[in-house]
Amino acid sequence: MTAIAQLFDASVMIIDRMHPNGKRELGYLVRTAKYTSNYAMISYLLQYPLFTYKYACPPVYARILQLGNTKEHKIFDGNTMLLELKDLSMNNTMYTQQEHIRKMFYKH
Prior knowledge:
Elements: H1 2-7, E1 11-18, E2 24-31, H2 35-47, H3 57-70, H4 76-90, H5 97-105
Antiparallel strand pairs: 1-2
Helix pairs in contact: 2-3, 3-4
């Protein structure tokens, strides 16, 4: 995890959660906060897509990063677009995971 964090110039956080059912969950989180870290992470994920449904998120994140960098999110239209993009990234149902895997990794 440290190597991944260094790649993205980010930090590693330890997560220690207790679920309502009493089960404890330990994990690690690499959190990006700087423009350069976010750009590196998005570039990586665009080049090496994920196998899960989150494969569709990096293009949306790239647009959100661009809105923030140009300060477009501060105007009404930009803020509306930001909210729409956030909703799109959270509720993306364009493809199922199986369709994504077939499309990206079994090209015929």
